[in-house]
Write a structure and sequence with these properties.
Blueprint (H helix, E strand, L loop, with lengths): L1 H21 L14 H6 L2 E5 L5 E2 L6 E2 L6 E6 L3 E8 L7 E3 L3 E3 L5 E5 L6 E6 L6 E6 L1
Antiparallel strand pairs: 1-10, 2-9, 3-9, 4-8, 4-10, 5-6, 5-7, 5-9
């Protein structure tokens, strides 16, 4: 009888302890109205660079930064090498391109930070012959 009670007590402690280990910690949520990475990345849009092009979007088109993100990020479907280019002061004679970065597929990578809303930018890929897809958030 005594062994049965000890066994039951031991099983109860193990179950209770296991529950404590499995129970997740509380998750902090942003205050109402504050920007968050989730809303920035959740509102990302797709890019699709066709073979033969080096830029996304192609030609004279641009992406524009928004008030949802303070930075420009990409998440390529497959690993790629690219660089962020943008117009300084909305002036087509003031093109700025950052250094090339190797971005692994399926992971977000910040290409630039602290951009004002409405900055025109594009992605320039090192491999013009490859079809490239992914997400961009800005």
């Amino acid at each position: 009888m005594r062994t049965t009670k000890r066994l039951a007590l031991a099983i109860g402690v193990i179950a209770l302890g296991g529950g404590l280990i499995i129970t997740p910690a509380a998750v902090a949520t942003p205050e109402a109205g504050s920007p968050s990475a989730a809303s920035c990345l959740g509102d990302a849009w797709k890019y699709d660079k066709a073979p033969g092009e080096i830029d996304a979007p192609p030609g004279a088109a641009y992406y524009r930064t928004t008030n949802r993100c303070a930075d420009i990020q990409v998440k390529p479907s497959d690993g790629t090498v690219l660089k962020l280019c943008y117009l300084k002061n909305h002036d087509q004679n003031q093109v700025v391109c950052k250094d090339e970065v190797n971005v692994p597929g399926g992971r977000w990578k910040i290409l630039g930070t602290d951009f004002k809303d409405g900055v025109e930018f594009w992605l320039r890929f090192s491999n013009a012959g490859a079809h490239k897809t992914g997400l961009v958030a800005a």
